[in-house]
Every structure is written in C-alpha cells, then in structure tokens.
Amino acid sequence: MHIDELQPRSVWKHFFDICAIPHPSHREEALGDALMRWAAERGIEARRDESGNVAMGRPAVFGMEDHPGVILQAHLDMVPQKSAESGHDFDRDPIRPRLDPKNPAWLVAEGTTLGADDGIGVAMALSLLEDRELRSGGLECLFTVNEEDGMSGARAIEPGFVSGSLLLNLDGEDEAELTIGCAGAVRTIAELSIPATGAPDGLEWYEASVEGLLGGHSGVDIDKGRANATLLLVGILARTRVALHLASVAGGTAANAIPREARAVVGVESARAAEFRAAFQSEASAVRIALGDKDPGLVAAIAPAAAGGAGPSSCLSPKDVDSMLTMLGALPNGLVAMEPDMPGLIRTSLNLGKVEGAVAPDSGRFRLDTLVMVRSSSDDEKEALAATVEKRLAGVAEYGWTVGQRRPAVSPAWSPDPASPLLGKAVAVYRELFGKDPRVTSTHGGLETGLFRPRFPAWDMLSVGPTIRYPHSPDERVEIASVERSYRFVRELISRL
Ligand SMILES: [Zn+2]
Asked: Which one in 79, 120, 186, 325 has a CA-CA gap of 20 to 30 Å to 172?
C-alpha cells in the first residue's frame, strides 16, 4: 500500500493538502486562506471572522429543506512538536506523512506531530461538503482557530456565523466512541503573603524533596490514584512535628499536570536536626508504603542545603510555616466524584497544579502563589468546589496572611444528555454499520463543544473521529482503516438527520 492509494481518496487528498501548509496554533492564516480559495473556486459560500475562524456551507438538497442544518466542526491548528533529532521548521516546512515503517496500518509523520488532530477532521468535513451524492439538509463546515492553546477561536464564535442546529465535532480520537460531554474548568490563583522574619543563627538548613512520581494529565489521569508531589511534601513536613523555618517551596509546573516533583528549603534548630531527619525518613517510608503500586517511583529525600555556605537571611517563621502547611494540607485534591449514570467516567476533580513560595527581596514578605484547576461535567459542582478551594486558601487570613485571589480562566461544562436525539440516531447508525454498540462517553478533559454550550444552548452536539494515538507528540499516529470507517459512519449519519 502506498499513501496515494489510501481510502477514502477525497479525505486523504484534503489531508495531504493540509499537511503541505504549515498550521501550528496561532499561525493558521495560510490554511484559512487556502480554504477560502478552495471554496471560492467551487462557488461555495464561505466567510471568516475576526479571529480567523472559517465557515462555509451548502443549502439542503431538493426536498430536504425541512431537515435540520448540520454543522461539521473541526479545528484548523495543530500542536507543533518534533523529535530531538528533527530539524523541522513549523513556520515553513510541510508535515511529511508516511506509513509507519513498523506498522503500516498507521500513518505517522517524519519526526513531527502529524496533525491528524485535527487535520483529519477538517479533511472529512471538506470531503462531505463537496460530496454531490450525499443527500442531506443544509450542511456547514465550521473550522476554528487555536483549539490547542486556549480555544480562543471557539470562544469567539458569534451567533449567526453558522445557522445549523446539529453539531458534529470531528475532533474525537477513537472511532468506537461517541462523546456526549466534557468537563468545564476553573483555574483559580491565590497570591498569599506575610512578613518574613530574619533567620536566627544556629539553624541547620535542608532541602527536602519529593520526586519520581508518575504525574499525568490532571483531567484524564486524575482517577488513577497518583500522588501529588506538592501535597506529599507538605504532609511529610507537617508530620515531622518539628518547628520549621522555610526559605522556599516549589511544586508542579502547570494547572493541567499532576505535580511529579516538589522541594522546600527548611531550617531547623541544630538541637532538633537529628530528630527532624529521622522523622522525615520515617514519614516518607510510611507514604511510600501507602502509595504502593499506584505510584511506585516515589523518592523523598533531605540533603543539607547550600553546603558550606551561610543559610538564607530571611524566611518564614515556624508559626507561619504551620499555618501554611495546615492550610495546604486541608485542601481537597484529586478525584471528587464519578458520574452516577455513566459507569467509570469522572465527574468532578481538582488538581493543585503549581505552588511557589519565597521571600520577595523588595518587600521583605514571604509570598506564596498557588494554582488550582477544578474540573466537572456539572457547572454547579465546578463552581461549588472552586469556591470551597478559594475559601480554604483564604482561611490563612486569620493567621495574618494577606490574601489575593483571581480566576484567569473559566470554561463551561458540556453536560452529557443521554437522551439526545442526535445521539440516539448515531447509536442506531453505528450499530447498523458495524454490528456492535459504540461506547458512549464523556471526557474529563476540555472540548470546544463546552464553549459552544452556553452560547448555543439549542444545539444538539456529538463528538466523533477516527482513532488517533499519542496526539501532541512526535509519535502521533492515525489508524488508516479507522478513517474510512469513521467517515462512512458520519456520512451515513448526516444522510439520516
Ligand atoms: Zn484536537
């Protein structure tokens, strides 16, 4: 098999055309231009909004004018990732797709992400739009910009940009799944501060660290029982029951990643140093045993900080370290609830993604920043949990801390509706074509459909797509046969709507 022979021909041709035009997030303009030209050459009515989102469509075929309009939605951008050896320039070089030499049932790219997420969705939509034999009501394509780095395109869709009422999001990643919901999210940041104190003489300073944890995505991996490095370290330090001075603390890297590492620089009175070291080690072993196989790589250690040098000149006093550790230790974290009606699916969770604390030299205050991400398929639960977290964080005000809080990003949930008529038809068509039931699912990650929900409450939506593995990495691959099946399924479904 050669890549020129892949089926359905029209889908793959569009996909290879897309691969030839660089289109990483924030740089989708050339691809948008190409789509506008493609539509103009065929007399297809097309438009583009200020963000760069593109819509195009065709009217209902004769006799199907009273059928609901269908919107085929996909995102134009791709995540630009390349292998260490690749010299690829994502601003200039085309993506080079090829059959995986080790397993030719899959298409990969040479040294880069393939962009099947979501180039295959765009290609399927274009191919359906130009299919003269497909009898349907009004059919529109909606192509959004910047899904992968903030979903700003989807956020900017204005009412009237498209007119259909049934939306098929073609950004799914498993041909056997029909996705009918996604989590909404709140990122909440707290900026806490309190005057630092001069570090007394005679302290021994240690760097305490936790590392080697599995981490993972704070949405889809949050039910796997993996530890949060920051909270482990906080817990171990608190349970040593030794008065600690704190010069700095840091854990995690991002809201949407479970922290794998955390460290803190702490000072203890020389007379209690041996007791502290022993207590730290014994608490660390207890944690290791409790985690067991769920997160087997934990390494918790203490080592003398800044060997030979003087300790820090100012730090957080033991009393304020106490209030900080107590507050962080009391934060809810991880899995909160599973979907009651959909076995195995996560409903509500949160992740203390990043913590950073140190003395600010200019103000002489110890400043602690925290970043928490709350997710839920229920906007009410999301809101209630975010409020709980903010209240707990703000509780340190009682101990003299100054508290500032803000929410840099909020996205709405797309709550699953198992009674959706679109879903009912999709399940029936899937069964008929493939002789088995699809998995009906909801994702604890984010989808653009979540952003459409409050603006277009009347839309009936479904997310589907061929099987893609390792998206957002140079190993990204799409299963070739699944593209043909997914396309056949979507085409058949459209003709029945
Ligand atoms: Zn995608």
From this structure: 186
Cβ neighbors of 14 (< 8 A, separation 6 or more) are 122, 123, 126, 127
The rounded Å distance from CA 238 to ligand 1 centre is 42
The CATH T-level fold of domain 3-182+414-496 is: Aminopeptidase (3.40.630)
Short-list 388, 392, 414, CA closest to 403: 392
Using CA of residue 113, residue 488, residue 13, residue 124, what is the dihedral sign?
negative
Residues 130-164: pLDDT tens digits?
A: 999 999 999 999 999 999 888 999 999 999 999 99
Give the 3-state secondary structure of residue 286: helix
Extended strands (E) in 5-69: 45-48, 54-58
DSSP H helices in 193-349: 229-239, 270-291, 318-329
Tokens 């989807």 sit on residue? 154
399 DSSP assignment = G
Per-domain residue ranges of the chain: 3-182+414-496, 185-411
- Expressed in angstroms and rounded, the spacing between residue 118 Cα and the centre of ligand 1 is 5
Cα-flanking dihedrals φ and ψ of residue 73, to 5°? -115, 135
Cα(142) to centroid of ligand 1, in Å?
14
| pLDDT tens digits for range 319-338 | 999 999 999 999 999 999 99
Q: Residues, the chain, total? A: 497
Maximum Cα interatomic distance, the chain, rounded to a whole number of Å = 90
Fold exhibited by the domain 185-411: Alpha-Beta Plaits (3.30.70)
pLDDT > 80? residue 306: no
Cα of 407 vs centre of ligand 1, distance in Å, is 25
Give the distance (Å) from ligand 1 centre to CA of residue 73: 11
* Rg, the chain, Cα only: 26
Task: For ligand 1, an ion, list residues with CB under 5 A.
Answer: 117-118, 171
d(CA 141, CA 103): 33
Q: What is the DSSP string of 67-99?
A: SPPEEEEEE--B---B-TT----TTTPPP-EEE
Strand locations in 63-183 (E): 70-75, 97-100, 103-109, 139-144, 166-169, 177-182
* CA–CA separation, 134 and 155 (whole Å): 31
Report CA(2)–ligand 1 centroid distance (Å): 26
Distance CA(287)–CA(37), nearest Å, equals: 61
Q: Which of 181, 222, 187, 223 is nearest to 386 (CA)?
A: 187
Q: Which residues are catalytic?
A: 77, 147
DSSP element (H, E) containing 354: strand 346-360
- Give yes or no for residue 307 having a pLDDT over 60: no
